[in-house]
Amino acid sequence: MNKHIKSGAEIVIESLRKEGVETIFGYPGGVTLPLYDKLYSVNDIQHILVRHEQGATHMAEGYAKATGKPGVVLVTSGPGATNTITGITDAFMDSIPMVVLTGQVPTKAIGKDAFQEADVIGITRPITKWNVLVRDVNDLASSIQKAFEIATTGRPGPVLVDIPKDVFLAETDFVYPEKAEKEYETNIDFESVQKVAEALKHAKRPLFYVGGGTIFSGAEKELRTFAKQLNIPVTSTLHGLGAYPGSDAQFLGMLGMHGTYVANRAVDECDCLIAIGARFDDRVVGNVSEFSKHSFKAQIDIDPSNINKDVVVDVALVGDVKEVLNKLSSFFTEELSLTEWWAQLNVWEAACPMLPPPESEGFRSQHVLKALDKHLNGEGILVSDVGQNQMFSAQHLTYNHSRSHITSGGLGTMGFSVPAAIGAAFGSERKVVSVSGDGGFQMNMQELVLAAIHKLPITFIILNNSNLGMVRQWQDMFYEERYSFTNLEGKNPDFVKLAEAMGIEAKRVTCFGETDEALLWSLNAEYPTLIEFQVEHAEHVFPMIPSGGSVKDMITQRFEEEK
Predict the structure, then answer these.
(1) Three-state SS for 15?
(2) Which residues contact 77 (CB under 8 A, 6 or more apart)?
(3) Cα–Cα distance between 92 and 411 in angstroms, integer?
């Protein structure tokens, strides 16, 4: 027998080996049984049995964000495939490389409403970079190779390969295609780069606005060198945190709806704004007509579709961030004279520092995260959920390294943190900390058991204010305090008993004085632990720019107290 003749199931496994895949997150089902039967004797690819397919996709996202490698998901047809939709959409919005392998009913049954059939190709077409239904086993290897290439090149994103059961069983000669280097059209011509360089040289109030594309490009070193070379202040999007050291004096913090006062004032009054791997998201821009309206704007992005999509720029440099920064920095030999600009920035920083409320006002989430920041000291990986906990984590923790901050940005998926933290822990040996609110934690808390099974030393933190905090904040500020279905007091489970039932040691903290001891216990543990912090019910995230507003509409704690 020809040793190169393999079944479709064997071809999937060999293709994953060719792509260097070490870990996949999955859940078996009827049509994927031929593949799972072959996985039974595979030792070089770790299969993580999740408790829900949505959890698999978020684990793959966390793995990809922590490692830079594509996350891989394997699920069955019908509900198995449709349960991945939220995670695929999340990865699409946040440009996370992910390869999703779904089983499908036999080719002869497609379109006949067979048991557990779903048109996953039609469903996922708008939320993937590319998807394909493989009807012929001879196309299987090339489809998987193409999937990995598309997921990881250019602007990363999710892809999906749908495989019918009979294709898993069919046999053919296995030949894996050679990887083809894909060429991307760029617009990095001399005149464009020179124009941006000249604008920077003549600027009195320049600012670097950094997004997640800087991290995807691996351009952190180039960014830091260039910013230091010119002494230019740096602000970051939510996904850009860690691209520039958070502890550095030139870092102004995050910008946007819940960005720092100094960062938002800098964006508003700068005269030269360079967007580096950032797409002018609506949570950053707000009112487009008022956004940084007196500045020269340049945008560096590998995806042409991001150019002028929301904010029209003066110069677009379409290409890899690292390559563009190298070309741009070659025009400079000394730092810029920005004494007056830095003096103004320091005034804004002092006017509204990012500090938690006094302890006399009650035990707050900010107190917990400030203490966590002290103990992490800019190291480890922080995986936040969505809501107030997410914004507090972005505001009060220091991110000195890339891939140290993982969250759901574009889609804002509650329930993201627990599975994403588990995925990150499978991909990295760095300390992983998961931060969730009590509402979001319950959306995927079933995956907590995996941390116990695999003895992952994750610190799970629940900031329990017995409310859907961010929604309640909007009700408080914009809906005349009508708290419609956001109060969870008396409706939550006992989180400590829940964790213990899943094999995880847990503690409950009710006051500031117990915080340090609990955090040190958890952070130093070589096994998973959970801490529930019972914090004040009514918490607000400030600063805040109301949706569609501009910097002039910014609300801060300081100004609220004055009113």
Answers:
(1) helix
(2) 29, 30, 31, 32, 102, 103, 104, 105, 116, 117, 118, 120
(3) 9
Q: 411: which 2 tokens? A: 């889609």
b/e per residue 124-139 (b: at least 16 CB within 10 A): beebbbbbbbbbebee
Q: 345: Cβ–Cβ under 8 A, 6 or more apart, which residues? A: 233, 252, 262, 266
Reduced to 3 states (helix: H, G, I; strand: E, B; else coil), residue 378 is coil
3-state secondary structure of 252: strand
DSSP 3-state of 108: helix
- Whose tokens are 């320049």? That residue is 206
Predicted confidence (pLDDT) per residue in 180-210, tens digit: 655 555 557 789 999 999 999 999 999 999 9
Res 181: pLDDT: 57
| SS3 of 33-54 | HHHHHHHCCCCCCEEEECCCHH
Q: Look at the alpha carbons of 371, 373, 379, 383 in this order and tell me if their dihedral is positive or negative.
A: positive
User: pLDDT tens digits for 416-473?
Assistant: 999 999 999 999 999 999 999 999 999 999 999 999 999 999 999 999 999 999 999 9
Secondary structure letter of residue 7 according to DSSP: E
> Which residue, among 430, 439, 360, 356, has the nearest Cα to 400 in the 3D structure?
430
pTM: 0.96
For residue 141, give both structure tokens: 């290897």
Q: Is 79 left (phi over 0), alpha (psi -120 to 50) or beta?
A: alpha
Query: Looking at residues 22-36, what average pLDDT do you find?
Result: 98
Secondary structure element (H or E) that encloses residue 449, with its range:
helix 448-453
User: Catalytic residues, which ones?
Assistant: 53, 115-116, 165, 470
Q: What contacts 535, CB < 8 A, 6 or more positions away? A: 362, 363, 364, 365, 367, 368, 463, 464, 465
The closest alpha carbon to 300, from 329, 330, 273, 321, belongs to 321
- Residue 549: CB atoms within 10 A of its CB come to 15
- Taken in order 391, 396, 399, 403, the sign of the CA dihedral is negative
Give the other-Cβ count within 10 Å of 342's Cβ.
15
- Residue count (the chain): 563
502: CB partners within 8 A, 6+ apart? 448, 449, 452
The answer to whether 322 and 217 have CB atoms below 8 angstroms apart is yes
